[in-house]
Write a structure and sequence with these properties.
By secondary structure, the protein is of the alpha+beta class. The protein has nine helices and twelve strands. Among the domains are: 125 residues, no CATH class; 85 residues, Pdz3 Domain.
Length: 346
């Protein structure tokens, strides 16, 4: 069942993504040869008026074959009906549509989940409300009522506004001694602390406890708080990307193995956690696809804009070289992420 859930979740996200490309391409009259769910050998195919709709044997992935793309037979198609034969801004919209659909799906699902739950957990103030058993924070000298304002680990400084900032900082620097700047009785002090590995939770913890602030919300408010969840998730993704570029948190990367594990654990907890996972994965995929890396939609958009600014088309050889570099980078990233997944298994 975990495998089935994993396939279904990724299929929903990918189908929505490719549907975005298909709908916008058709809107701008670009000839679409095929819309496929899955990859590999065809097991079902229906020829529509213009576009063939197919289901393929490998239920991971999908694609839209548009005239003007590499590998698509478009010799009999008028140039103005190819991807490269339409205005540059239309090309950008078509290429961005998949990611936009993913973000839109995440937004709708976050609102749905918030609506069904009927309550939200508001961000806790960064005030120590208690300690866990064998807390390293308590041993380090923290006291109940301390307000944490800043955390420094090496050259990385985090300004703390909510308790989530503390948790996030520790997740990026789990084995590093951190200097916590604390407000206590009107004065400021610094306390050093190194998180401790918790075997039952499989992560490093400081041993703080925060006050939990749960708010009952109305149906209308679920739109506001669902949107807030999506915005918070998006900003967290961008913070993660900025840290990864600087080499921080690489050990937290997950590939297919890690996503499968998370899916297996989450789906055991019911439909609401599963929908929340779909929303989070869809948001991640949408944002990741817009990065200016070759092969990804963002890379293709970037090259289209470069052509527009420079006033000349890239040669086929240049496009091929750029795409190959992109493929190598993505494969390397996937191998590294999968290796991290395997290390976490043992």
């Amino acid at each position: 069942m975990s495998i089935i859930y994993f396939i279904l979740i990724l299929s929903v996200i990918i189908i929505i993504h490719e549907l975005g490309h298909l709908l916008t391409a058709k809107y701008f009259h670009v000839y679409c040869q095929e819309f496929s769910i899955g990859m590999g050998p065809v097991i079902y195919k229906h020829q529509g008026k213009e576009t063939a709709f197919s289901i393929r044997a490998l239920p991971l992935g999908g694609f839209v074959s548009m005239a003007g793309e590499e590998g698509v037979d478009d010799e009999s198609i008028p140039f103005e009906r190819t991807l490269k034969g339409i205005a540059w801004w239309k090309q950008v919209i078509i290429m961005a549509a998949g990611a936009i659909m993913n973000v839109l799906l995440a937004w709708i699902l976050f609102i749905m989940v918030t609506m069904v739950q009927g309550r939200v957990v508001l961000p806790s103030e960064p005030i120590v409300a208690g300690f866990t058993e064998d807390s390293v924070a308590e041993a380090a000298g923290f006291k109940i009522g301390d307000r944490i304002t800043k955390i420094t680990s090496g050259s990385e400084v985090t300004t703390v506004d909510t308790f989530d900032d503390i948790t996030e900082h520790i997740s990026y620097f789990p084995k590093t001694e951190a200097v916590f700047t604390v407000e206590r009785d009107g004065s400021e002090t610094e306390i050093k602390l190194t998180p401790k590995y918790n075997e039952s939770e499989d992560r490093y913890l400081a041993g703080f406890q925060a006050d939990v602030n749960v708010k009952e919300i109305s149906l209308i408010e679920s739109f506001q708080y669902g949107t807030t969840r999506m915005i918070d998730g998006s900003t967290a993704i961008f913070r993660s990307l900025s840290k990864l570029i600087r080499g921080i948190g690489l050990e937290n990367l997950s590939g297919p193995v890690g996503i499968f594990q998370i899916t297996a654990e989450t789906t055991q907890n019911g439909i609401i956690p599963a929908i929340s996972l779909i929303a989070l994965l869809s948001l991640n995929i949408g944002i990741f696809n817009l990065l200016p890396l070759p092969v990804l939609d963002g890379g293709r958009i970037f090259m289209t804009l470069i052509e527009k600014i420079s006033g000349r088309k890239l040669s086929e050889r240049a496009e091929m070289v750029i795409m190959m570099i992109g493929v190598v980078l993505l494969v390397a990233l996937m191998v590294f992420a999968t290796w991290q997944d395997i290390l976490r298994l043992f």
